[in-house]
Amino acid sequence: MEIRVTAEKSVGGFTLEADFTVTGDQIGIFGQSGSGKSTLVGLLAGLHHPDRGEIFLDGECLFSSRKGIAVPPEKRRIAIVFQQPCLFPHLSVKSNLLYGFRRSAPEHRTIDFAALVKVLKLDTLLDRGVNNLSGGEKQRVALGRAVLANPRLLLMDEPLSALDDTLKLQIIPYLKGVSERFGIPYLFISHSLVEMRLMAEKVLVVAGGRIVEQTTPDQLARSRMGQSQVGYINLLQLAALRRTDGLFVYQWGDTELFISAGNDSPNALFELSSRDIILFKKHPEAISARNLLACTVANTFSAGNKTGVELSCGNRRLVAEVVVQAADDLCIVAGSQIFAAIKASSFRRLG
Amino acid sequence: MLSLTPADHDAVRLSLKVALAAMAVSLPFGFIFAYLVTFLRFRGKLLLEVFVNLPLTLPPVVIGYLLLLLLGKNGWLGPLLDLLGIRLIFTWKAAVIASAVVGFPLLVRSIRIGMESIDPQLIQASRTLGARWYDTLVTVILPLSLRGIIAGSSLMFARSLGEFGATIIVAGSIPGVTQTIPLAIYDYASSPGSETLALSLCVVSVALSVLVLLFHEFLGKKLARRD
User: Fold this and answer.
1) What are the phi and psi torsion angles at A110 (to 5°)?
2) What is the C-alpha R_g of chain A?
């Protein structure tokens, strides 16, 4: 998928000036609230028109002030999953799901209703009204409804913001899985860096009504490490091994990690801040931290007054951070051998 | 003892007929008008709103008189109506028009309140799911403003039952033809010795109003349960 936008739009005192071309199937749009993300969504979907400019999707002109083209939203085949589920309150789950499907042209109908219902686990909800569903169920119905409209592009406008942390992590596999399974490219809009890293392969950074950067989620996280309160968040997908003395043991590459916040499910996603990793030049004899990993420095990068240290442990990577002086004192350069100590309580389980 | 004369029966029947007809005639226009002022932006919107709401503040007699000027034999639309062979003034149809004009702003206000409470994102969602504007109007806006439509219709129906000032000017007070309940009560009140007859019609009037309000509450509750 390729999106090409050169557009200007003033709303109130705010002006969005977007000028970018982006290709890919899992694109993130990252920015703080008020940066212009939602305005951009509205322009792409055709809910608002730019004051001037052009919008192309896969070479097809959706809007051009010069040529007087403005394809209406119902003809763009761009569906939106909003922050609020926005389900039609007077329709059942099934009628909500089929709302867009019934209106799509027969030649575009590639999504199988039964298959989608199964993937989103909505089988038992079909005949119910939508007003008594839980938050997660509602958002799954909203996603299903958007996908069943057989769009060529799915806009996910902060679809997780209204959900609590546990639900977010439960919905992410659905968002990602459904788009991959049914081959629908998406634009994922969020102000959360962690969500970006879980959802997008490429990120457009929006600030002050402009696209200021086009990068990868990981690069973005590294460049923001210095200013961030929580440093760089390492995301670790781990397989559970066993329980021992109140700690959970997880397999991470060819090493084992001791974690306090484990649970009994066979797989879990953990986050670990770069600030919670302590680096030693030599093997510390006695240490309270339950995890001591022998690593090689793969790379270093600077972020503000911090130095990011990319560690290679076996075939896995971790990012730690130290202040610049510490990096100098320990002579941390690419290729140095180093020990990383991590407390068992530093891992936070997501979901 | 309260009792109704055959003329009173006619008045009750006529009142109901006029109120129902006024409501039925106004409903589609009221819905379209409420849609226009709620969702569209256009030049002269404010002026149009003032014009439609005018009957709320104008004395009904003034409205009746203006309607007479418009629809009378020598009125502005007189020649056109003549040409079409339509006679309105001093028929029950004139009473319908008077009630419709006077009740229209009430109808529009209620529907509008219903429409304004619809989340705009629901409308956007429906458009991005492939619905054209009229499709959205019928499948999203109409069902979601149903409560406002019912409230507006009941208000308008009740208002029509009580319409007096405009009706007496354009339709007169001809027993059996254009004499509705309020006009009949006025007649009784101005002739000595008819107090009981007037009171009987007042009781009918109160009963009808209570029924309308009960019906409105019942439908409202039913809709709320559905949600």
Assistant:
1) -110, -15
2) 23
Inspect the interface and report whether the beta carbons of B128 and A47 lie closer than 8 Å.
Answer: yes
Interface with chain A: mutation pick from B129, B136, B140, highest number of A CBs within 10 Å: B129
Question: What's the pLDDT tens digit per position in A254-274?
Answer: 899 999 998 888 888 999 999
Size of interface A-B (CB pairs under 8 A): 64
Same domain, A57 and A15: yes
Check if the beta carbon of residue B148 is closer than 8 Å to that of residue B113.
yes
**Residue among A73, A88, A89 whose CB faces B128 most closely:** A73
How far is residue A100's CA from residue A151's CA, in Å, rounded to a whole number? Answer: 9
What confidence score (pLDDT) does residue A245 get? 85
> Do A99 and A148 fall within a single domain?
yes
* Number of domain units in chain A: 2
B18 by Cβ neighbours in 10 Å (0-12 / 13-18 / 19+) ranks as: buried
Does position B111 have pLDDT exceeding 90, yes or no? yes
Element (H, E) at A100: helix A93-103
- CATH code of the domain occupying B6-226: 1.10.3720.10
Instruction: Kindly identify which residue of chain A lies nearest to residue B133, measuring between CA atoms.
Output: A74
CB contact under 8 A, B122 and A90: no
Please determine, for residue B1, whether its predicted confidence score (pLDDT) is greater than 80: no
Q: Which of B46, B30, B85, B94 is nearest to B66 (CA)?
A: B94
The answer for residues whose C-beta is within 8 angstroms of residue B77's C-beta and 6 or more apart is B70, B71
pLDDT of residue A18: 94
Cross-chain CB nearest to A149 (options B121, B122, B129)? B129
**Residue B148: its chain A contacts at CB < 8 A?**
none
Residue A171: pLDDT above 70? yes
Task: Give yes or no for residue A200 having a pLDDT over 70.
Answer: yes
Q: What is the per-residue pLDDT for A305?
A: 83
Q: What is the dihedral of CA A323, A327, A329, A334, to 10 degrees?
A: 180
How buried is residue A94: exposed, middle or buried, by Cβ count under 10 Å (0-12/13-18/19+)? middle
pLDDT of residue B227 exceeding 70 = no
Q: Does A81 map to a domain? A: yes
Is B132's CB within 8 Å of A72's CB? yes
The pLDDT tens digits of the residues spanning A50-101 come to 999 999 999 999 999 999 999 999 999 999 999 999 999 999 999 999 999 9
Q: Which of A187, A216, A245 is the last residue of a domain?
A: A216
